[in-house]
Design a protein that fits this description.
177 residues; 2 domains; six-stranded mixed beta sheet; disordered C terminus; alpha+beta; single chain; 4 helices; rod-shaped
C-alpha cells in the first residue's frame, strides 16, 4: 500500500482511471457506431459496399430515369386523350324527339321527328309521318346547325329542342295537333 501513496503509485492510479474512462468511452462509441451502421444499411440497403455519396448519386440517376419514363407516358396519354376527345366530338351530343299528329286525324300522335346531332351541331333529322294506311320516312342533313334542306316546323322544333337541351335531353314536344 505504500507504493500507492507514492508519486509513482498516484500516477499509476490516475493512468488506470483514465484507461477505465477510455474503455467506457470506447464501448459507448462502439454501440453508437453499430447504430449508425444499422441506419446506414437501412438507407443503403444490404449492399453496404458503397458510400452515402455513391448511393445518393445512384438515387439521382434512377430519379432521372423515372422522370423521363413518366414524361413519355404522359405524352402518350395526352395523345390518346386528344384522339378520344376528337372521336367523342363526332358522337351524338344533342338529341330530341318530337311527336305529333301529322294529319290531324286524332291518331294518337303517331308521327315523330328525331334530331341527332354531334358536338359541332351536325347530324341528321329523321321524320316518320304516319297516315292510316301508310308511313313515310324523311331524312335531312344538318351541318353546323344549318339544315341542308328546308325543315318543317316539327323538324325545326326538334333541332331547337335538341340544341337547347344541352346535349343529353330528350325532348317530347306535342307539336301541332
Amino acid at each position: 500500500m505504500h507504493s500507492l501513496s507514492s508519486t509513482t503509485g498516484i500516477v499509476a492510479l490516475a493512468a488506470g482511471g483514465v484507461a477505465v474512462v477510455a474503455l467506457l468511452a470506447a464501448v459507448a462509441l462502439a454501440v453508437q457506431l453499430r447504430g449508425v451502421r444499422r441506419a446506414q444499411r437501412i438507407v443503403l440497403g444490404d449492399s453496404g459496399a458503397q458510400d452515402l455519396a455513391a448511393h445518393a448519386s445512384e438515387l439521382q440517376r434512377a430519379f432521372r430515369e423515372l422522370h423521363s419514363y413518366v414524361e413519355d407516358v404522359a405524352a402518350q396519354l395526352h395523345g390518346r386523350m386528344s384522339e378520344a376527345e376528337t372521336r367523342l366530338d363526332e358522337t351524338l351530343a344533342y338529341r330530341s324527339l318530337v311527336r305529333y299528329d301529322a294529319y290531324n286525324e286524332m291518331s294518337g300522335r303517331q308521327s315523330m321527328t328525331i334530331a341527332l346531332l354531334d358536338a359541332s351541331q351536325s347530324g341528321v333529322v329523321l321524320s316518320s309521318i304516319h297516315h292510316r294506311d301508310q308511313a313515310r320516312l324523311y331524312a335531312k342533313q344538318v351541318i353546323a346547325g344549318r339544315p341542308e334542306h328546308e325543315l318543317s316546323p316539327e323538324e325545326s322544333e326538334a333541332v331547337k329542342l335538341a340544341l337547347s337541351s344541352g346535349g343529353g335531353g330528350r325532348g317530347d314536344a306535342a307539336g301541332p295537333q
